[in-house]
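Reopening this ticket.

The earlier resolution said the output was attached, but the attachment link was broken on my side. Pasting everything inline this time so it's all in one place.
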Amino acid sequence: MKNNKNLLMMLSCSAALFAACNGNPKATDSTVKDSTSVTTQSIPDSANFEADVQGQKVKLFTLKNNSGATVAVTNYGGRLVSLLVPDKDGKATDVILGYDSLKSYQKPKEPYFGAIIGRYGNRIAKGKFTLDGKAYQLDINDGVNTLHGGFNGFYGKVFAAKQLSASQLELTYVSKDDEGGYPGNLTATVVYTLGDDNALKIEYKATTDKTTIVNLTNHAYFNLNGAGNPTITDNVLQINADAFLPVDTTLIPTGKLQPVKGTPFDFTTSKTIGKDISIADEQLKNGKGYDHNFVLNKHDLSTPIATVKSTVTGITMEVFTEEPGLQFYSGNFLTGETKDGKGDKAYPYRSAFCLETQHFPDAPNQPAFASTVLKPGQTYHTVTIYKFSK
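Inline output:
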């Protein structure tokens, strides 16, 4: 299945459709001028990840390059645990949220830190869809909807792991027919590759023996000031998207595409994440901040679809993808209630953001959106790259 499928060019939202939005949630603009970089010089102890889960061995794997970057990955959920890159002073800075032990990843209502998300990333309305005339019902795990695959999502599964080299790890999971309500035996393979240019490449492949739906992504939570820093509202973001998908109060897309111009969702020019996050806006109210899919102008790996920079660490992250959509989430549901993050850090409200490359939410129920159907004999294949510089 081609992943840079023809996106219905209802994406050609004209300037005449521009609509200004106003109206938002709690919190004032919390752009922080005096953020302090929180650096982590080492990855968690691998012994804290060694366990037998679901009859399989769980471990922590390490990827290294020749440019000072290190990535730690566990095969439990295929999760990115740590991502250390040099800051402007050459210090190894961990830029993703996570935990120091496997046990914390297994707790109830864990927020998908660093996980591979499948079979279907994001939401499906009421957990229902129809394929070839047959209706399917998925787990309902997010209000009235299915989120990130449901209760049996890939985030809680043990992947078979093969370290291909010092800088490359292959993970494979076979999702059985009817797991979580999805049809078909789906074999999903994810390869993490850390390049010497400090680019983390994530390559996804999947095949099925029965017509199904698939939408894989990664749920890394980033803070370029350093994981454990109390805010990301001062991180500077640019998104190459002229439109986004407005959502209802349950965060299901309305089916319309809305131009970003004149709204708080206009990141076509760089601005801090916190600049407009507290504007009175119906869409920001629905998402309790940013929790929306952006319709990318281009998605072929040739140019970044998003760029983020920390003025504290000097770290810049560029995102490249073959996917048509980008879910930008501003950490609105992080609470900081417990200090079980890496280094005993709390992860408070808006202390991280996610940039999840994917097909659109609820696409199986919205014919105008690019298809997420995968048939026997087809191969789902897509690549996303997170590239770091200082």
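Reporter confirms the inline version is readable. The CA atoms of residues 140 and 146 lie 5 Å apart. DSSP finds two helices and 28 strands in the chain.
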